[in-house]
Every structure is written in C-alpha cells, then in structure tokens.
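User: Continuing from earlier, I have the next pair ready.

Assistant: Great, send them over.

User: Here they are, in order.

Assistant: Folding the first of the pair now:
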Amino acid sequence: MEATLFFFFANILLLSTSRASPFQSHLLLHNSDGAATAAANHLHVSQISCPSWRLAVETNNIFGWDLVPEACEDYVANYMLGCQYQEDSFAVTSIALEYAKNLTLGEDGKDIWVFDIDETALSEIDYYSQPDVAFGAKEFNETKKNEYLKEAKAPPLPAVLEFYNNLLPLGYKIVFISGTSESYREYRELNMKRAGYHTWEKLLLKQTSEHGTTSVTFKSKKRTELVEAGYRIIGNMGDQWSDITGSNVGNRTFKLPNPMYYIA
C-alpha cells in the first residue's frame, strides 16, 4: 500500500514538473535567494499569514471575500506564476482521472463530466497579472474583463486540458457551465476551440433572464436540467465552491485552486 501511494504521488510530481510552464513569460516576484517569498510567508492579515489565508480560502473557511489582501498580493502572484499552482492543479486532475477511469459507464451516452470554464478549463493569468488587476488585489472592473473575454485568447489550464483529453476516449460526454452572459457565446466558443477543447456535449451560459442570480443558484439549475434530461453527472470540477455545491452536484466533485477571487 505504501509503495502504491509513493508511486502515485511520484507520478503527480513527475507530471507537473516535466511540463513547461505556460506562464514562463511572467517574471516571478521573488528573487533567487527567496527573500521576498520568505517575507511574504511572514506577512499577516488580521493575524493570519498569507499561506494560511490561502488555505482558509481554498477550504471555504473564509468566504464572501471581495479582494486579495494587499499584504498578500505578492504571495498570491508568486503562487499563481510559480510551479506550485500547476502542481496543485495536476494533483487534483490526477486524482480525478484515477476515479474516472475505474468506472463502468452506461451505453446510452448519458454519462457526463461537468466543468467550469474560467480558472478551470481556461487560465486567465494574462488578465489577472496586469497591474491594475493585481491578481485580485484591485477592485473588479467588469468593462475591462469583458474586453478581455472578447479577445478569446485565454490559454488552457494544462492539467485540465490533459484531463479532458483523457476523459473523451473513456466515453464521457463533456458539459461546460459558465456564468458568462449568453451574449458572449461567440467569443467563449472561439476561445475554447483555440485552447484545444474541440468537442463538447453542451456549453451552457447565462441567459438574460438568469442575470442577477448567484453562481450556485444558476449552476444548480443547469445541472438539474441536465439530470431531468436523463444525463448522469459522474464528475464535476471547478475552481469555486459555487461550482461544486448546491443541487445535483454529481457523484464526485473536484475543487481546483484559485486564491484570486471568490464567486458566490
């Protein structure tokens, strides 16, 4: 048993470190002696260190927050641009794949895997690394974000794209659910295809009548509609707790890391 666990986690580490980082064009904010990183590790926000703040965010012990604490901006930047974010993402998808490939699917084509899009299928690190966004430490600018969406240039999150490509030959149908407005469908579909997501069963966006609803309400509604249409949600993956909580979340849920923003 110990040998099996060692082999499993060694494979995760090998997968995450053997791939070239898609974020290499960004200069990391710490220097070679790690001084800035060490300083960030000792910064405190309301008596909580930045690493502990991130852990509390990821475990949903801190929720409803609006901005990354100013004192933790560099810490979050280093995490998102460094190797750890990718390693954490590959750990999640590696565990998910072990689950997915050991199931027997039905023969009716109704077994689906649900994905969120932003910071799940796609990485918007090019947007969030801009100085006036500051990895979530600056106030959200909806106009600026919508302009970025129209560029349809966000790259895939490598771990999720690889997982997606492993799911398809296993017989899973893919469903993407995003809180993006339906009016942006052209840009969203273009971006997904450019990023390597070439096929899906459904890509569900917010209709005009659904604007103003919370993410957990909207996504619960869409998943319920899928179940009522006869689909079986075998797995569900997202970077927000609102992606994987609510109604009809699926047989298993998988939470990807994202300390840059919170969506209810």
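And the other member of the pair:
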Amino acid sequence: MRIAVSKMAASTFAGSLAVASAVREWRAVSRFRLLCRGGGVRTLATPAPFQGGGGGGGAAAQPFWGGVESLASSAPVVFVESGIVALQAASGLPWWAALVATSAVLRTGLTLPLAVLQYRVLAKLENLQPEIQSLAKELHCEVSVYGKQLGWSEKEKRFQFKRNMRRIVSNLYIRDNCHPVKASLLVLVQMPMWVFVSIALRNLSIGRTASEGDFIQEQLSTGGVLWFTDLTVPDSTWIMPVTLGLLNLFIIELFALRKTEISKLQKYITHFCRAVSVLMIPIAATAPSCIALYWLSSSFMGLSHNLLLRSPAFRRLCAIPQTKSHSDTPYRDLISAFCAKLSIK
C-alpha cells in the first residue's frame, strides 16, 4: 500500500514538473514572438524591483508590489491602460498633465455623482431620525402592553421590539428611497478604480503593457515637470509623498469635524484612516512618480469635491435635502472648528 502511494506521489510530482516546464517554454516562445514583431528585435523593459530614494526603500516595497502581479494583466487594468494612453494621445498634453486630467475626469465624471448621491442619502437618513425615535417609543409602549396581556418574558419583548422595529425602519427607507447601502456605493466604486488605475500606471512605467509598452515608458521617462521630470522613477525628494499624506490627513479631519459626537466604532475607523494616510507616505516614495502624481491629484480632487459639497448653493443644485446640522456658512464654521481643535484663538 505504501509503495503504491509513493508511486502515485512521484507520478503527480513529475506531472507538475512537466506542466511547469511547458508553461516556461510557452512564455519563452511568446516573448520571442513579441521581440521579433515588426521585422526586427526590440529591447523591451522588464519589470524590476522598485528602488526607493534611499535606505533600502525599494526592498521594502517589493512585497507590496508583488501582491498586485496577479491583477497586472486583468481586463479592467488593460482597459484603464488603453483609456489613459488614448486620453494623452487625443489631448496632446504632456504626460504629467494627462495624468492630472485623468484623475480629474474620473473624479468628476464618476465619483462626484456618487458623492452627491451619498450626501443625499445621508441627509435623508438624518432627517428620518426624529421620526424613527418617535416610532420606537410608540412601539416600545405597544410591545409592553401586549407583552403583559400575552405573558411575554423580557427576552420575548426585546425580540418582538427589534423585529418590528427593523420592519418599520426598512419601510421608511423604501418610502424615502434612502437605504444606507446606497451611501456606500462611492467607496465600492472608488477603491477598485483607484487600484486599477494605480496598477495600470505601474504597467506603463515599466513597459509592461499590451502594446507599445517600451514606447510609452520612453515618453513617461521625459514626460514630467519641475523636480520630477522622469515619471518612471520614484520622487527622491519625497515632496509628493509627504504632500499626499498631509492632504489625506486633512480630508480625514474634515470628515471627523462633521459631527461633534461620534461612536466608538467611528473613532476607531478615523484612527485607522489616519494610520493608513501616514503609511501611504513611504509607499508613495517607493512608487514611480506617475503613480504618486495620480494619487496626489486624485486626493486634491477629492478634497475639492468635499469642500464643494458643503456649499449651500451646490447642495440646492444637487437637490440635497437640508438637515438640522446643515449650515449656511459652512466654510466659516469649518475654520472655527479647526481653530477650536487646534486651540487657536
């Protein structure tokens, strides 16, 4: 029996080696065909570990970028690559400006409408709270009366109250078309978009694209401006990474100032987001400048939209309901809140 099992294991191992060898041969043939395409040999850039601005940052970044290898050739990433290249070719902008325009188009055309929807849903939910509290009091009285008549235990009363309260709240959500899930659409769309664009830019910066990879990489190497003229290498000055971290922290503080009283869970989430914002600084410092520039411009557009959505005129234009917490002087109140938080008089 043991001999049979050993033979079976050896056979399986040999089969695995044969499959791995066939895959390596297929990749070699595909690469040879790619090199010989067009009647001549072309030098293609091969993916290499990112080197940071010093202190071994490139080695620390390898695990981060190694995790995205499986997505590098996916259909969404290839689609984003084609879109970025098409936008730059159609506009004729230098690559640094094309990347800023890409973030502006995606943020304004895709995430801004979802942000408006989020604010509209949150405003409706806030306006529903007094009605929900009133109905909860009435339901509590009814459950107490029926519980005494039917001899319910305290556990049964709580169960009946929660079950009926869920039904009442669900009906209110349907009536006002403000289910909380709709408020999370922004995150569900924005995060995958951010990941796909980041990986697409990485592919472009190392020449790993479906077509004309080395040509795009050449353009990116001279398509920068100011201190980051080469968009394929990290920002050695750390100006963009640090600015990115500070900008993200400022956005988080904007959301933290929206409510004076927050729950313990919201407090933990805010601290987590602050930690992620700080962590993004060394990550951006080891990424190509084109990625850091996209992250920075995307965060700047996000900050602009957050400030815009506080404007009473824009909120009326987008049919966002007025709430008790709404202010006619949001920017003045924002400055006052920041000054109070920093104890500036």
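Worth noting for the second one:
The chain has two domains: 71-112+183-341, 116-181. The first helix runs from residue 2 to 36.
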